[in-house]
Amino acid sequence: MVVLGVLAVPLHAVPASANVDKPVTVMTRNLYLGADIQRPIEATAGLTGAAAFVALGNANHVTRAIVDRTNFPRRSQLLAEEISTAKPDLVGLQEVALWRHGPLELPGSGSPGALNATTVDYDYLAILLQDLRRTGVPYKAVVVQQESDVEAPSFVGNPFTGTATDGRDVRLTIRDVILLRASSNLRVLDSGSGQYNARLVLSVAGLPATFVRGYNWVDVAHGSGRPFRFVNTHLEAFSSDLALAQAAELLAGPAADRGRTTIIGCDCNSDPLNSSVKPHDHVPHKAPYDFITGPGRFTDLWLTWRPANQGWTSGLNETVDEPAPPSFDHRIDMIFARPAPGEQVRVIAGAVTGADSSAKDPVTGLWPSDHAGVVLTVAR
Questions:
Q1: Considering only CA atoms, which of 214, 196, 206, 104 is closest in space to residue 151?
Q2: Cα–Cα distance list, 246 to 49, 145, 196 (Å)
Q3: Which of 106, 154, 190, 274 has the most neighbouring CB atoms within 10 Å?
Q4: Could you tell me the pLDDT band of residue 10, with boundaries at 50, 70 and 90?
């Protein structure tokens, strides 16, 4: 895999013009929440009652242990180095997890399933912002949108037979965040966020569980220059039908105004080269991407800069410790743009980040995330 330097083309190569705003650098970065959250779903499939509860608790215990193993405090340092080197003005972050725990609540006692675990284990946003300050390139969170917020038991053994150990409730809150570099000349004009109405509903331990996705956006400008909107989103991973419905909501909502230049940073969970259809879906994996770049009239900016096979961003293992080179083999992390009438958006520098051997921590063997990042500098 070819990984380009962040400043592969010098910024001064852009022709000076009174009608061209200052170049701006944007990034999309999935932080990886730390483990595969499908494990509890798969472990409880077909089970009900006490058997489902036990399977859920044991699966969650394994999942939560992997979160410790994937060590976000260390990965955050790698991510902070990556971001501070690229120095994007704006960063769209996905899977900005908040892991918490509380007392174990058994069925028939207390309020099992309630969101009342409050002891913080890992606040990915706070950790990353602190690490960015330590690099000397601080950022501030300008928009934070909460998405899924779920809590469930975690233990080893069986609490109904008195053999359970390490019992507690574990809570995961997922957020999407837009960061602005503190030293950026961009001026924030407006901001907002929301959740998609199209949502995944699955059965976990015989009970329905809803997984929420959403978006956030910020309107910015260089001084008195022309404003543009930067949108950050994370589309559904487990259903292309839902990801397509969410893309339609996005383009009818914060990305609807065709009179304004809009740039989208997206973990789209949609590979434009993948025409396969997931079980229970009706549209192919590439359908959300095709909708954004087709009827939505957005341009996939990476493809105006380099070929698709130089932009792979996804595919690492759950424990993000596989040997170099990493097994990135498809592209689902995108930066799109749709210029206002009479404007243009041109890529003048770009890179995939966190995907070459220098990104891998030599001590822990961890990669920064199970995704690579994409950073592009654009001129208008």
A1: 104
A2: 34, 16, 6
A3: 154
A4: very low
Token pair 């407006």 in the structure block, residue: 190
Give the model's pLDDT for residue 113. Answer: 62
Q: How many CA atoms lie within 13 A of 121 on its CB side?
A: 21
- CB atoms closer than 10 angstroms to residue 215: 28
Task: Say how far apart CA 335 and CA 325 lie, in whole Å.
Answer: 24
Which residues have a Cβ under 8 Å from the Cβ of 108 and sit 6 or more positions away?
Answer: none
Could you tell me if 63 and 340 are in contact, meaning their C-beta atoms sit under 8 angstroms apart?
no
What does each C-alpha distance from 179 to 88, 132, 169, 230, 263 come to in angstroms?
Answer: 9, 11, 31, 11, 15
223-256 confidence digits (pLDDT tens): 889 999 999 999 999 999 999 999 999 999 999 9
CA–CA gap between residue 320 and residue 157 (Å, rounded): 27
Positive or negative: CA dihedral 96, 243, 39, 201: positive
